[in-house]
Specification:
This protein has three domains: 165 residues, Beta-Lactamase (2-Layer Sandwich), CATH 3.30.450; 103 residues, Signal transduction histidine kinase, dimerisation/phosphotransfer (DHp) domain (Helix Hairpins), CATH 1.10.287.130; 170 residues, Histidine kinase-like ATPase, C-terminal domain (Heat Shock Protein 90). It has a five-stranded antiparallel beta sheet with strand order 2-1-5-4-3, with helices on both faces. With 499 residues, the protein is of the alpha+beta class. It has twelve helices and twelve strands.
Length: 499
Amino acid sequence: MKFSNKLFIATTALLTVIFTAFGIWMLSSNFSALLDREILRGNSESRMFRVLFEMGYTSVEEYGEAYAIGRTLDSILDGVERDGSHCFAIYGEDWLRGRMYIEAKGLRSEVETLRKGLEEWNGSYYKVSRTKEGFFLLSVAKVPETETPLYLGMCRELTETFQNRQGMVTQYHISLSVLLALGGVCIYLLSRYITRPISSLGRTAKRIADGNFELRSNNRSNDEIGRLARDFNRMADKLVEQMEAKILEAKQQEDFTAAFAHELKTPLTSIIGYADMMNTMKLSPQEQAESTYYIYNQGRRLESLSLKLLDLVSMDKNPIVCRPVPTKRLEENIRATVRPIWEQRKINGKVEMDKGVLSGDEELLLSLFYNLLDNAAKAMDKGEQGFILLKGTAMPGAYEVKVVDNGRGIPREEIGRITEAFYMVDKSRSRKEGGAGIGMALCHKIIKLHGGTLQIDSRLGEGTVMKVIFPMETPVPRRKKQGKGATHKKAGQNRDAET
């Protein structure tokens, strides 16, 4: 069953119970008050009838009991019965007044029952009785002044009162039916309106499940459903991001497998080919030397590839030990290492690093900068007077290292993928230079291990800027010399730093 139908049925049932209970209470209260008023009025008339009789009877009691009773009744009946009530009197076992009316209304047995109840004590009884003729209020009182028991009573018809109640009940039923009908229509429309955003959200979820991943809920309300829609949109965005990440990861794994297989195939083909040629053909010493050189060269290439792969895998498993690394010491090592390569390639290179202290593994940092500079050198065309700059700049709380070259550049659409293993922008040129597409993956891994970030800006034909930003360790202030012990301690620290 739809939620809107459940809401409609539940609300309608609740309103029906509330209106019915309230109507019954209201009708019962009004009728009880009206009936109590009629009973009070009937009892008042009965008491008045008794008082008038006692006053009249006393005045003529000297003429005999029977005469006094009859004379008194004749003198007060017209006044007492003026508002529609009917009097009756029972003297001993004989009916003096009202017998025909009581029997006509079917109240004879009710009156006899009340009279017998008064034989034991002087008081009054009243009772609301129902017969075929209608509803009646009977009030009976015993007169103590007479020797023979005398019972005076009044009968007041209440049929109209009960008919009014029945009319109010009928009118209430009609009103309740109309109210529930109109209320039911309003509740149904309101329930459909309230649940419409939920239905829309359900349709959106179904369409997303069918493959329309760009679809989102347009609900912008500030209620619970609006918040649910916004949470749903965030969930959908997150799922799409995770799905795209899984797709990209699967593609990267597929590309990695294909590239790795290709990188193995080329040197293995050369090794197998030259080995087979040496085994099956008679070669001259020069040809044997060339074959041996190619086998050795391709074997070294496979060794380099395996070592880089081991480094790439082991970095995540073996956490680095961070130590303070002076940037000036890095500058000296980098300059001494890359100067011969730049001279051989006729590259104008420059290494400048501001004074500072980085926290990390010195060997990994050197490997990072060597790879960045090596990639910059490989980006130079043969015979071109290229320019490479490694610039380290100390900033508040960070240290920035930029590697700038004026080489071939990287296409904008491929910048985001150059940190993937085995990914090469120009595969033929990279293999010719001896690369396997792992260097930038290692660089990216080293940067992440040191809490840094990598930013790449490149334009085809103009060059590339590789920017690495590290969090910089705050230098510890040096203490002043304090005697001979302090001097020896500082000297020991300097020796450790030089080591």
